[in-house]
Amino acid sequence: MAPAAWKGSDLHYQTNAQDVARTAGKTDPFPAVDQPCEDAADTPLSVALKKTEKPVKYWEYQCHALCCLLVGGGHVKSGEVRRAIEYLPPAAFQRCTYYEKWANAVAVTSIERGTISQKDLDEALGGSHATPEVLYKPGDYVRVKVEDSSVRYRKPHLRTPGYLFGVVGRIDAPCIGYVEEPDIDAFHWVEGPMQPTYRITFYQKDLWEGYQGTDNDTLEIEIWQSWLLPSNEEEFKHQQANRAKLEITNGHKHDHGDHVHDERMEIEQKAVDAEGDDAERSRLTKALVKCHIDKGVIKAEDLTAMIEELESYGSRGLGARMIARAWSDPKYKALMLKDGASAAAELGIEADGWPANGGVTEPNGQLAGVLLKVVEDTPEVYNLLVCTLCSCYPISILGMAPSWYKARSYRARSVRDPRGVLKDFGTTVPEGVAIQICDSNADTRFIKIPLRPAGTEGWTEDQLQALVTRDAVIGVRHPKTVEEFNKEGGVFHPKSEGYKGKFIYQ
User: Fold this and answer.
1) What is residue 247's three-state secondary structure?
2) 173 by DSSP, 3-state: which?
3) Catalytic residue among 96, 291, 390, 438
4) Alpha carbon of residue 36 to chain centroid
5) Would you call 306 exposed, middle or buried from its count of C-beta atoms within 10 A (0-12, 13-18, 19+)?
6) How many separate domains does the chain show?
7) Which residue of the set 63, 67, 387, 438 is catalytic?
8) Plot region of 369 (φ>0 → left; ψ -120 to 50 → alpha; else → beta)
9) Is residue 114 domain-shared with residue 205, that is, in the same domain?
10) How do strand 434-439 and strand 381-386 relate by DSSP bridges?
11) How far lies 331's CA from each of 334, 343, 345, 460, 461, in Å?
12) HSE on the CB side for 22, CA within 13 Å?
């Protein structure tokens, strides 16, 4: 009786499509209920905006750099990584942060390709193959875990029914013995320990909304220890006291006047909130780094160099240089709009992954590489950039993507309610100006040329760069005005003169 939402490779794209549909006409549709991390997929835009300048953690740089090296080295294709993210089980996709999804995808694809083995990864994670001790006794209360992709890095073979996820039950008999865990037994290359198994009692009214039987009707089932978390009588009594609010659906809250049914996902989330801090979130990434270095797939020095490159992009002002030149040189602007990569190269901004000539290779006319597409604001059209599917973003030019750009609320709402999103950023676009959404995909990265601020006649390119912000190039804010610049102190900071670098995957 597993949840109907398990639909394999359609899951991620289906989730995004539903997000877009359900947000029409709403200001901020994703309430921050027990969010495990501020940059999780469901972080509401109002929360994500407060974390705009949240520093990227070192393990997140490690994850990004590892993916760059694996894709750049031909050890995995970017499409494989995206597909692996789509395969994440619904509960894991809901609670994992952006880079946790990446780490899971790298684990899946590396094992599939034989780059590393499941045994390699298990050992790096420090998993024990010893038979675990019996943790629970008669009278103990336990909570069933939610579905979790960390059980196995391929889609797990689940033998714990989904209707029990997050529910507290009671053990009424001693451990009935040891069995081979089906999650592990389903993969022939994995060896794991035998697991203690328990017969657990659940009350039917704790499971099913509108159950018509008595308060004492129960369900008994055998579950192995790796799927159980310790609970207590207080949690059990709280669960029973709130029976009327339980709702076993993947849908929304229902207001019945005197009470509101809690989403099952909210209930499940409470069960995992205490399961790990940031050290736990970084554990898989660090294990993957160790495995790939030990196997000789990547070098430690290459990983360090890639992290340093990622860290430096935001301070180089490459996008600002291009925009400032376009504002002051009509011929350069025309080149940018025709061929973004060639325009970047003219300023010394070279990256192997940005093909020139619009990405067209001769003589067959096929596309190659990731395209850098430049669009221009006019008095009649205002551009807003987004990637609804997977947060594609021109890191090589603009630096690491901000948290709000990756938040599902921004991605979903931008295409349906762009003026509402802009309002959240404090940006107003006149009603008479059309808004054009530029939605990236796996083959295109956008930047835009905003309208040049008034009062900048005679300014040099270095001076103009001071008015160009990352948010202005994305479109969520206007460039700084001369008045704003002067109020901030009016100091010009020279920007980079270009670099020779690598295309950065995102």
Assistant:
1) coil
2) coil
3) 390
4) 13
5) buried
6) 3
7) 387
8) left
9) no
10) parallel
11) 5, 10, 15, 16, 15
12) 13
Mean pLDDT of 377-389: 93
CATH label of the domain that carries residue 347: 3.90.330.10
Q: In whole angstroms, what is the distance from residue 110 CA to residue 294 CA?
A: 14
Contact 135, 127 (CB under 8 A): no
What's the CA gap between 154 and 190, in Å, rounded?
12
CA distance 164 to 268: 10
Q: Is 390 a catalytic residue?
A: yes
> What pLDDT score does 351 carry?
57
Q: What is the DSSP string of 50-69?
A: HTTTPPPPHHHHHHHHHHHH
Q: Which amino acid, 70?
A: L
Same domain, 322 and 374: yes
Give the number of residues written for the chain. Answer: 506
Residue 307 in any domain: the answer is no
Q: Domain range holding 13?
A: 8-127+280-300
Task: Tell me which residue of 155, 145, 224, 228 sits closest to 186, measured CA to CA.
Answer: 155
CA angle 265, 270, 273 (to 5 degrees): 115
Active-site choice (96, 291, 392, 438): 392
Q: Are 495 and 320 in contact (CB under 8 A)?
A: yes
Please report, for residues 51, 315, 502, the alpha-carbon distance to residue 48 in angstroms, rounded to integers and kept in the order given: 5, 22, 29
Tokens of 14: 């289906």
3-state SS, 297-360, equals: CCCHHHHHHHHHHHHHHHHHCHHHHHHHHHHHCHHHHHHHHHCHHHHHHHCCEEECCCCCHHHE
| Candidate list 149, 231, 391, 414, residue with the active-site label | 391
Comparing 157 with 248, which gets the higher pLDDT?
Answer: 157
Q: Is the pLDDT of residue 295 over 50?
A: yes
Of 275, 308, 328, the one marking the end of a domain is 275
Identify whether 434 is part of a domain: yes
Give 386-427 pLDDT, tens digit per residue: 998 878 888 888 888 888 898 888 888 888 889 999 999 999
Which residues are CB-neighbours of 256 under 8 A, at least 6 positions away?
none
- What's residue 327's pLDDT? 96
Higher pLDDT, 325 or 273: 325
Our answer to whether residue 63 is catalytic in this structure is no
Q: Within a 10 A sphere around the Cβ of 276, how many other Cβ atoms? A: 13
Point out the least confidently predicted range of 3-12, 14-23, 108-117, 146-155.
3-12
Task: Say whether 175 is catalytic.
Answer: no
Q: Residue 20 above 70 pLDDT?
A: no
| 255 and 321 fall within a common domain | no
> Is 37 tagged catalytic?
no
